[in-house]
Design brief:
69% of the residues lie in helices and 0% in strands. It is mainly alpha-helical.
Length: 105
C-alpha cells in the first residue's frame, strides 16, 4: 500500500520488463554460444600455431556467422507467421463461439 493518501500501488499490465530483459539476454547469450561453438569447430585449425586466426579462418568464420544469423532470421520469420496464423485461427474460433451463444456453456 502506498503511504500517500492510502492508495494502492498500480501494477503494470503485461509482462514484467525485468523478466523480459532477462529472458532476452539469456537468449542472446545462448545464440552467441551456439555460433561460437559451431563456427569455431568448423573454421579454426586443430593445431594452433598463432594466437590469432589465419586469414582463411577469419573469412570462414565471417561466412559461418553470416549464414547462421541468416538461417535464424528465416526460421524466426516462419515461426512468426505460424504464430500469427494460429492467433488468427483462435480469434476466429472465439468469435464463432460467441456468435453461437457462448459455445455450449
Amino acid at each position: 500500500m502506498n503511504a500517500f493518501f492510502g492508495q494502492q500501488e498500480q501494477k503494470p499490465s503485461g509482462p514484467d520488463p525485468v523478466f523480459a530483459a532477462s529472458l532476452e539476454m539469456e537468449m542472446y547469450t545462448d545464440l552467441f554460444n551456439k555460433i561460437a561453438s559451431t563456427c569455431f569447430s568448423k573454421c579454426a585449425a586443430r593445431k594452433h600455431k598463432d594466437a590469432d586466426l589465419a586469414l582463411g579462418e577469419m573469412s570462414c568464420t565471417d561466412r559461418c556467422v553470416a549464414k547462421y544469423l541468416e538461417s535464424q532470421e528465416l526460421v524466426g520469420g516462419v515461426l512468426q507467421k505460424a504464430n500469427e496464423a494460429q492467433a488468427a485461427q483462435q480469434k476466429a474460433m472465439m468469435e464463432m463461439q460467441s456468435a453461437m451463444g457462448g459455445g455450449g456453456k
